[in-house]
Amino acid sequence: MAKTLCDWSRNKRRKKWDKYVRRVLPVQFICQKCGRAASDRKYLCRPESATPPSSS
Ligand SMILES: [Zn+2]
Protein backbone atom coordinates (compact mmCIF):
# COMPACT_ATOMS: atom_id res chain seq x y z
CA MET A 1 0.00 0.00 0.00
CA ALA A 2 2.56 2.52 -1.14
CA LYS A 3 0.59 5.70 -1.18
CA THR A 4 1.68 8.69 -3.13
CA LEU A 5 1.75 12.12 -1.59
CA CYS A 6 -1.11 12.86 -3.97
CA ASP A 7 -3.27 10.55 -1.89
CA TRP A 8 -2.42 12.13 1.40
CA SER A 9 -5.37 13.85 3.00
CA ARG A 10 -5.03 17.27 4.54
CA ASN A 11 -5.32 15.63 7.94
CA LYS A 12 -2.58 13.11 7.27
CA ARG A 13 -0.31 15.82 5.94
CA ARG A 14 -0.83 17.87 9.06
CA LYS A 15 -0.29 14.92 11.40
CA LYS A 16 2.82 13.66 9.63
CA TRP A 17 4.22 16.98 8.55
CA ASP A 18 7.87 16.05 9.17
CA LYS A 19 7.53 12.94 7.04
CA TYR A 20 5.74 14.88 4.34
CA VAL A 21 8.43 17.55 4.16
CA ARG A 22 11.16 14.93 3.97
CA ARG A 23 9.45 13.41 0.94
CA VAL A 24 8.93 16.74 -0.75
CA LEU A 25 12.41 18.23 -0.31
CA PRO A 26 14.55 18.55 -2.28
CA VAL A 27 11.99 18.88 -5.04
CA GLN A 28 12.89 16.74 -8.04
CA PHE A 29 9.51 15.91 -9.50
CA ILE A 30 6.16 17.60 -9.88
CA CYS A 31 2.89 15.78 -10.39
CA GLN A 32 1.34 16.71 -13.70
CA LYS A 33 -2.10 15.80 -12.46
CA CYS A 34 -2.14 17.30 -8.97
CA GLY A 35 0.63 19.89 -9.08
CA ARG A 36 2.32 18.43 -6.03
CA ALA A 37 6.08 18.31 -5.66
CA ALA A 38 8.26 15.51 -4.32
CA SER A 39 11.85 14.36 -4.04
CA ASP A 40 11.11 11.01 -5.68
CA ARG A 41 8.81 10.10 -8.54
CA LYS A 42 7.35 7.21 -6.55
CA TYR A 43 5.58 9.72 -4.31
CA LEU A 44 3.52 11.14 -7.17
CA CYS A 45 0.78 9.68 -9.35
CA ARG A 46 1.90 11.50 -12.54
CA PRO A 47 5.53 12.46 -11.91
CA GLU A 48 7.31 14.80 -14.24
CA SER A 49 10.86 16.06 -13.84
CA ALA A 50 10.94 19.38 -12.03
CA THR A 51 13.95 20.50 -14.04
CA PRO A 52 13.03 23.65 -15.90
CA PRO A 53 12.95 23.11 -19.65
CA SER A 54 15.96 24.62 -21.26
CA SER A 55 15.06 27.50 -23.49
CA SER A 56 16.63 27.02 -26.88
ZN1 LIG B 1 -0.65 13.38 -8.38
Structural class: alpha+beta
Low-confidence parts, pLDDT < 50 over ≥5 residues? none
Task: Give the names of the bound compounds.
Answer: zinc ion
Q: What is the radius of gyration computed over CA atoms, rounded to a whole number of angstroms?
A: 12 Å
Q: Could you tell me the strand content as a percent range?
A: 5-15%
Written description of the protein model:
By secondary structure, the protein is of the alpha+beta class. The chain has a domain of about 35 residues. It contains 2 helices and 3 strands, in the order ααβββ. A 3-stranded antiparallel beta sheet has the order 2-1-3, with no helix packed on it. β1 and β2 form a beta hairpin. It starts with 9 loop residues before the first helix and ends in a 7-residue tail after the last strand.
List keywords for this structure.
alpha+beta; 3-stranded antiparallel beta sheet; 14% strand; binds zinc ion
Care to give the gist of this entry?
By secondary structure, the chain is α+β, with helices and mostly antiparallel strands.
Topology of helices and strands:
Elements: H1 10-15, H2 17-24, E1 29-31, E2 37-38, E3 47-49
Zinc ion binds at residues 6, 31, 33-34, 36, 44-46.
